[in-house]
Design brief:
This protein has 359 residues and is of the alpha/beta class. The chain has ten helices and eleven strands. It has a six-stranded parallel beta sheet, sandwiched between helices. Strands 10-9-11 form a three-stranded antiparallel beta sheet.
Length: 359
């Protein structure tokens, strides 16, 4: 339900146009998730030995077949995780580190660098070319399970409302997805959205970071079928995620780094000052955390069931889950399940329920 059709009878003269000066993708802040001025209670003391140990191998060679392809900035360090004024990692390195910490052992993860080569921002033409290349590889018989796209363009909802004259809100933005896609046709952004939709049609799950501003949207999420991933509120760092009707699920977006090991942080207030080598936060990192957890769940004997449940409209999923509980005997009989198999199936449904943010 994240990208429902536009209203049946929109006013004839209200086709939306993009904001006059939308933030461009190569804006230095486009993929940087660590705030310039971290909260006072955030651990900011750098380690005595200097910059943190990298959580991933910078020189990893892409594999031929991928469970997950990450499209991001891998070549320009742009994230200062220990707040010493010097960038420590490229954004994509941190994204890959989180994904590897959550993915099953042996998962094949491929990097695709889309850096603008200077600021750490993203070159949309490179993204477009990468997606077209992935489609060609699939035409040649290659399998791709999912794409992690922790990249966003920050469109302020208030600005969109002023520019278009439409009564667009966080709650109804999904109704205008088709209108915006029509306006964006032929642009780099429009081409990327179209490629995401084609990948989804071919069975590739595309996960996109929702953005870190509660009052903005990420227009990549206008693509039909993609999963928009927001970030949980955690004590000590609230309201650091987009929250609108094109956000599908939430993950843990707050991470710490200690001796090269990544640690998910559930409560910032419980982290002793100086106890970590670095901290980074944002929906960019909630996205790979979610992708990794879904990869774990998909290792079940019923991967098709997992994919089907993950893609079900929210209200249908809730109904199926409740029916499985209310009609246990009937469910076991119709599906020819033993008690043990029924309990395993219900546990799987509950885990997917949690992955969907409880909806």
């Amino acid at each position: 339900g994240a990208t429902m059709d536009a209203p049946a009878n929109p006013p004839a003269d209200t086709t939306p146009t993009p904001p006059a000066n939308p933030p461009v993708a190569d804006d230095p802040g486009a993929t940087v998730d660590v705030p310039a001025n971290p909260p006072a209670d955030r651990p900011t003391t750098p380690p005595a030995e200097g910059a943190p140990t990298p959580p991933v191998n910078r020189n990893r060679t892409p594999d031929t077949t991928a469970n997950v392809i990450i499209i991001d900035n891998f070549s320009v360090p742009d994230n200062d995780v220990n707040f010493d004024g010097q960038p420590d990692f490229a954004h994509g390195e941190l994204v890959e580190g989180v994904l590897r910490s959550q993915a099953p052992e042996g998962a094949v993860i491929e990097r695709q660098d889309a850096s603008d080569g200077s600021s750490g921002g993203i070159d949309l033409k490179k993204v477009d070319n990468h997606l077209k290349d992935i489609l060609k590889r699939m035409d040649a018989g290659e399998d791709v399970d999912s794409i992690n796209f922790s990249v966003g363009i920050d469109w302020q909802i208030d600005m969109i409302r002023q520019e278009t004259g439409l009564d667009i809100t966080k709650e109804n933005i999904h109704q205008y997805a088709k209108d915006f896609k029509e306006v964006l046709k032929g642009t780099d952004l429009g081409n990327i959205i179209a490629s995401f939709e084609e990948l989804e049609r071919r069975g590739v799950d595309v996960f996109i970071a929702a953005g870190n501003n509660t009052e903005s949207i990420n227009p990549f999420l206008f693509a039909d079928g993609v999963d928009g991933v927001g970030s949980f509120n955690v004590p000590g760092l609230e309201n650091y995620s987009a929250n609108n009707s094109i956000v599908d699920r939430q993950g843990n977006g707050l991470w710490g780094l200690k001796g090269g090991e990544l640690k998910a942080i559930k409560d910032l207030n419980t982290v002793p000052n100086g106890s970590l080598d670095g901290v980074f936060v944002g929906t960019s990192f909630a996205t790979p955390e979610t992708v990794g957890r879904i990869m774990q769940v998909s290792q079940t004997d019923e991967p098709k069931l997992v994919k089907w449940l993950l893609k079900l409209p929210r209200e249908e999923f809730a109904q199926i889950r409740q029916a499985a509980v209310d009609y246990k005997v009937r469910t076991m009989r119709e599906l020819n399940l033993t008690e043990e198999q029924y309990n395993a199936r219900l546990a799987l449904i509950d885990e997917i329920f949690a992955l969907r943010g409880g909806v």
